Amino acid sequence: MKLGFFGGGNLAASMIRGLRARDASGEILVHDISAERLEYLRSAFAIRPAPAAVVAAEADVLLLLVKPHQVAALLEELRAYDLSGKLLLSTAAGVPLHAYTSRLPGMAPVRAMPNTSAAVLRAVTGLAAGAGVTPAQRESAAAIFSALGKVVWVEEAEMNALTALSGSGPAYFYLLTELLAAAGAELGLAPATAEFLARETLVGAGRVLEAGEESPALLRERVSSPGGVTLAALDSLGADGLGGAVLRALRAGAARAAEMEREYGARVCGKNS
Ligand SMILES: NC(=O)c1ccc[n+]([C@@H]2O[C@H](COP(=O)([O-])OP(=O)(O)OC[C@H]3O[C@@H](n4cnc5c(N)ncnc54)[C@H](OP(=O)(O)O)[C@@H]3O)[C@@H](O)[C@H]2O)c1
């Protein structure tokens, strides 16, 4: 299966790195505006730089890895080619599936939302399939995105909640790490030591979660002995309303994602949608 990338930026580079780790020689075509970027990808990953027309004609799967505001122009450009039956994978946040089907009828679109942990090939990517995507194409889409980490299928209606949770999620854990480091420093630790402790604690807890043997709730309960230090701190977080704050934060993120979906849907389709 020949893959054709439109957009050779940060995410494309991570994805190609993940794909190359599995298959060092499969042909990967890339079209990007920047010749310099293409030269970097060619020398780093042995991709074949190609004009849009060649990628559109030769690739079985088209990957649209451009910014959301660049999608309308790219789809307009792609309308010149016969792409019917091809699988289209797009990571543009907020661009709804109907925008692809209305601009490129006959293509089989899958909308994908990875996160920035793609940079270390540890993303989790939400995938939503549009009309006309066959079971074999779903398998291909999942296999391609698993080069970046884990994948999960959702309905498109769940995409805004997923975006707020895992799409934006790395930032919440970075914030928590910052806050723990600042609080540790406030309590008297050297700032560098506090940051080291916060960072390593997050990474270690992540590894335990990754082992996947117990639920997060059980793991938390196990470290919360009655009358102990952890429970005193967790009770304080509960009294300060952490659970409600997290729910409100995800609601705000999902609401913004829904607004963006309306905005980009209208922009790509050229009408209110
Ligand atoms: N990076 C992540 O971890 C991540 C996570 C979740 C979602 N995403 C989404 O994935 C998409 C790609 O992200 P990114 O970080 O890789 O963005 P990026 O680094 O800006 O890469 C996009 C590339 O596409 C090029 N481009 C723009 N229009 C094009 C066209 N018509 N034909 C060919 N190339 C074109 C851009 O050139 P110029 O720079 O000249 O415009 C740029 O090199 C975005 O929609 C982003 O929101 C990324």
Structural overview:
The protein is an alpha/beta fold and 273 residues long. The protein folds into 2 domains: 3-155, NAD(P)-binding Rossmann-like Domain (Rossmann fold, 3-Layer(aba) Sandwich), CATH 3.40.50.720; 169-240, ProC C-terminal domain-like fold. 56% of the residues lie in helices and 13% in strands. The chain has an 8-stranded mixed β-sheet, sandwiched between helices. The model has no long low-confidence stretch (mean pLDDT 95). Bound molecules: NADP nicotinamide-adenine-dinucleotide phosphate.
Uncertain segments: none
| Proportion in β-strands | 5-15%
Query: Quick one: how many beta strands?
Result: 8
DSSP summary: helix tally: 12
Say what the CATH topology of the largest domain is: Rossmann fold
**Shape, please?**
elongated
Strand sequence of the main sheet, in spatial order?
3-2-1-4-5-6-7-8
Number of domains: 2
Quick one: biggest sheet?
8 strands, mixed
Write the layout of secondary structure elements.
Blueprint: E1 3-6, H1 10-22, E2 28-31, H2 35-45, E3 48-49, H3 52-58, E4 61-64, H4 68-78, E5 87-90, H5 97-103, E6 108-113, E7 123-129, H6 135-145, E8 149-153, H7 159-167, H8 169-186, H9 191-211, H10 216-222, H11 229-239, H12 242-269
Parallel strand pairs: 1-2, 1-4, 2-3, 4-5, 5-6, 7-8
Antiparallel strand pairs: 6-7
Helix pairs in contact: 4-12, 5-12, 7-12, 8-9
The structure holds NADP nicotinamide-adenine-dinucleotide phosphate (NAP).
Task: Explain briefly what this protein structure is.
Helix content is 56%, strand content 13%. The protein has 273 residues and is of the alpha/beta class.
